[in-house]
Structures are given as C-alpha cells and as structure tokens.
Amino acid sequence: MRAATKILLILAGGLLLTPAPGRADSITFTFTAIDISISASGTFTTDPLSGGSYQITSIDGTINGQSMTLLPYGTYWGPSDNLLFVNGASLDYGGIAFSAGGIDYNLYDYHGDNYLCVVAPHTCGNIPAEPDNYVVEFDWNDTNPVPEPSGLILLGTGLLVLAGVERRKLLALLQPHPGIGRRHN
Fold first, then answer.
1. Residues 75, 15 share a domain
2. What proportions of the chain, in percent to the nearest 5, are helix, strand and coil?
3. What is the chain's Cα-based Rg?
4. How far is CA 73 from the centre of its chain?
5. pLDDT digits (tens, 9 = 90+) for 92-128
6. Is the pTM of this model over 0.85?
7. In a domain, 133, yes or no
8. Domain that holds residue 85
9. 3-state secondary structure (DSSP) of residue 44
10. Buried/exposed 145-164: b ≥16 CB within 10 Å, e otherwise
C-alpha cells in the first residue's frame, strides 16, 4: 500500500473516531432601557441546549459602567433561569438575573416585550405593571455558531472512498493478467 493511501486512511479514521469537542458559545449582547438612563453590553458564555436554547453560565459586561455578575438560577421570582432562545432571538419569562454596583437586576420577556426589573433596593416580580420594571431594547448575536458535525462525517467518508479507489488500483496493478506470457495453440 502506498504511503499516501495509508496517510489518507489514518486521517479519515481519526476524523470519524474523534468525538466533537464540548465547548461553550459566546454571545454578545446590548440592551438599553426606554424610560430611564440604563444601558448595558457584554458577552454571555453559554452552553447550547436542545431545542435552540442556551443556558447562560457566566456574564462579562457592564451596565452603566458597573461590572455585571451572573446570579444563580432561581434567584428571583419567575424564577430566573438564565436562558436564551434562538427562535425569535428572545429571552424567556424567567429571565437572566445579574448584579452590578450593589443592585440586582432581572432581564426577562413578557408577551414578546423585553423588560428589566431593577430588584434592589426594591423588590419586584416579572410583571411590567409593577414599579421598577422598564421596557428595554435587547439585542444579541451568537459569535460562535455551532459547527456542523455532518460536514466532518462527509469529509471522512470522502477520504475513505479515495483510499478504497487507490487500493483497488494498486491491487489491479499487482495481479497477473490472464493471457499475458502464454501461447495459444
């Protein structure tokens, strides 16, 4: 077997047998409150979940110049679940709980509109009619789209087919052909 064929087989086998690495996605975000002077931007680190949703695992950003810290799941009424959804690029009713500058916030969706609940020093539920709930313009962008595993499988399969074709050509060259070197009477 030629060296090139061996290399192709090793590469194809390695691609097919190597599991896809687990990784987190980075999602950039910005939001601005409509009625008050609050704006924020930064990056969510997330784990992709099934159904086009993301579990936010950390936050690196600022709100009005104050560093943001993600609060644990269920911190506030709703409960805050720290999820984002790809379909419609939206938050959910539970929202994303975080703190900055000694104030706790919950960023959530209520019937298709995004709201920011300023929790401390007051308390508020995820109900827009209550005080300290403000409409926000929320925008986010997935900066690390999920790779397509079928592309790697297709590449590996193509390499295996090429290796098989090369093998057949090599075997055909090594086999004696009938009638060569014989005399017919």
1. no
2. 20, 35, 40
3. 29
4. 19
5. 888 899 999 988 888 988 888 898 988 765 566 656 6
6. no
7. yes
8. 25-142
9. strand
10. eeeeeeeeeeebeebbeebe
Helix (H, G, I), strand (E, B) or coil at 45: strand
Q: What is the DSSP letter of 95?
A: -
Q: How far apart are CA 147 and CA 65, in angstroms?
A: 34
The DSSP element (H or E) to which 33 belongs, if any, is: strand 25-33
In degrees, to the nearest 5, what angle opens at C-alpha 54 toward C-alphas 86 and 66? 105
Cβ count within 10 A of residue 65: 9
CA distances for 123 relative to 1, 81, 182, angstroms: 74, 18, 100
pLDDT in tens, 156-176: 778 788 888 888 888 878 877
Number of domains comprising the chain = 2
Residue with tokens 């409150």: 33
Token representation of residue 55: 């579990």
Q: Are residues 44 and 107 in the same domain?
A: yes
- The DSSP secondary-structure symbol of 92 reads -
